[in-house]
Structure formats: structure tokens, C-alpha cells
Amino acid sequence: MTMKIERTDGANTIDRRVARTRALLQDALIALIPERGYAAITVDDICRQANVGRSTFYTHYADKDALRSATMEVHLRSLSRRRVSDGQETGKRLFEFSLPMFEHANAFRSLHHALLATSGDTIHDELRERIRRTVRTELVEKRIGHDGVPVEFAVQFIVGAFLAVLAWWLAEDAGLPPAQVDDLFQRMAAKGIGA
To answer: Domain limits at 151?
Structure first.
């Protein structure tokens, strides 16, 4: 299954040709990560996969890292939109990000396995940082805390637990559906931070 990012918001704010070219480049990067790992991918590889020239690439992105950041942003935004459009109630769950992430990881196992297997790689670090920001925001907005435990400690605890569970689930192919893994994660996370 080829992974493509669902896009709905870019077409109205930028020229359709620009949006199409950026989508081709972003989808090319996503397709190459499971095959080679982010660090080994070159701009030439991306251009070849997207069927665009190098000058076109540099018209849209300064370098491979700028493409990576834009791809992560669009991708994570698409997961958030999907949760809202699926009618999932927001604000009722402890960590809103977890179920969409488990569902997406299940649908695109090779991509997520590659992302999680490259610890120390910039794309893995960026994914971890974006999850940290999401968790931090949710903890602060929902005013969740535990007797004198600093928020940043709770953030590190939850993100570490989430990524460890996600990596285990993908590697072991434990036979648990995404909703069940998420339920277990949610219950353990709630106990862990005293919510």
C-alpha cells in the first residue's frame, strides 16, 4: 500500500500547481523512508521518485530537511483532521493524539517501523518532539498534574511510554487492534500520571 498524505486545506490558499508539486515531493519522501531510511535519501532520490527536476525541488524547499519538516507538519495535521471528521469527540480522552497515531501506524506499518527504528535520525527526533509538544499542550489545557510532579517530567514519561509501546506493537505484531492498544495505553498513562 503506497502512503499518501490526505490534504484538504492547501488547495485554497496556494496555487494548485504549487500544491500538487509539494504533494508529489512529500509523498515521494514518505515512500522512500521505509526503503532506505531518512538519512540515506538524497534530493536526487526524491526528485526521481516524484518525477520532478532538482530546480523544481529547490523552488519549493531549501533542502531535504525543509521538505521533512513540511511533510511532518502536513501529515500530523491530516491525522488531527481525520479524528475530527470521523466524529471522534475531542476533549473526552486523556491523550487525543494516541488513537489516530496507532490507527495510522497500523495502516502504514513499514513507514512507522522505519521511523521508529532510526533512533537518533532527525526524522525520528522531529516525530518525538512533535508528540512532546502535543502531550505538553494537552496536560496544560486539561490541567492534569500529579502532586508536585513537574509537567515536563510527565511529558517525558508519557512520550517515552507511547513510543516504546508503539515500537513494541509494530515489531511484535501482537495481534492487538489499534483501539485495544490505545485503550491499554490510555489506562496505563492515566494511572502513571495520577489522572
So the answer is: 88-195
Residue 37 and residue 60: Cα distance in Å, rounded? 22
Give the residue carrying C-alpha cell 515536563.
152
Residue 10, domain CATH:
1.10.10.60
CA terminus-to-terminus distance, the chain: 38
Do 162 and 191 fall into the same domain?
A: yes
Counting Cα atoms < 13 Å in the Cβ hemisphere of 165 gives 22
What average pLDDT values come out for the chain (195 residues) when binned by 10 residues? 51 76 90 83 95 95 90 71 51 78 80 64 74 87 71 90 88 85 92 76
Answer whether 192's CB lies under 8 Å from 161's CB.
yes
Give the C-alpha separation, 15 to 10, whole Å: 9
Residues 175 and 109 in one domain: yes
CA dist 22 and 27 (Å) reads 8
Question: 82 lies in a domain?
Answer: no
The model carries a pTM of: 0.70
CB neighbour list of residue 65: distance below 8 Å, 6 or more residues apart = 122
